[in-house]
Write a structure and sequence with these properties.
InterPro entries: DinB/YfiT-like, MST-like. This is Mini-circle protein. Pfam families: MST. With 163 residues, this protein is mainly α. The chain contains six helices and two strands; from the N terminus they run H-H-H-H-H-E-E-H. It is globular, with a radius of gyration of 16 Å. The two termini are 30 Å apart.
Length: 163
Amino acid sequence: MGPQLLSERDNYVDYLDSRREAFARKCEGLAPEQLATRSVPPSTMSLLGMIRHLGEVERIWFRRWLVGEGDPGRLYGPRGADVDWDGAVADQALVDEAWTNWRDEVAFSKEWLAAHDDMDATVDCDHHGVLNVRDIVVHMIEEYAQHLGHADLLREAIDGQKG
């Protein structure tokens, strides 16, 4: 029996999960100093910053917008402060916290998506306008895909690992 066709939601979830897994693989086996290695000045981009940033993005789009928790609070400082990137320093406790936060937010998002099939359901996302679930899930796929390119370059610069 060949591959089975997925529902629209399951197809999007499959793409999103594969991007999440690819991102986690890019960061596997690195010490805090390596995860905190910055790209090129003046950028503050690092793999650790990306872990923190993607946890924050998951939190905002799923908890705030799709679930409607209002402002669930930021994980890494006030909006616009870039603490998720700037605060990504080589400290094992910060690395552990970042992974825990990211995994918790991913688990929350996966649980929410598993319980909701209606990709046409809409939410008012303030300055983003009215969006449907599809828009938000596609945005999340896009967010991970964008950062996977960055992660590829960062990882290759750290230890030469490609792919």
